[in-house]
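Researcher: Here's the sequence for the chain we discussed earlier.
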Amino acid sequence: MKILIIFNREPYDSTDVTWNGLRLAGKLVEGGHEVRIFLMNDAVDMARDVCRPPEGYDQDLSKMLKDLIALGVVVKVCGTCMARCGIYKNHPYFEGAEKSTMQALADWVVDSDKVIPF
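Model: Thanks. This is the structure I predict for it:
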């Protein structure tokens, strides 16, 4: 099954929403599903090396994303959001996170069996 997960939230927003979404992605990959991730809005910070967990937070969400990329998960990041959103505006994305477009997201939505927003 092709599953698209769309992240919208700031990675460290005092909730575990993003962490849980990444955990779900990992379990879906383990289950043999094709998982694709699109980051937009403040979630784009997760694909930047400058993004670090706040003091006292026990999970590194950027590392979790890199681990998913290493497992073959394709990660695309909204190019427009790069300059508009997140704490680290205009910082580059790390290797494996591809700058992308709204059209690419639209194509993925149409091509996916399930779309899960976080």
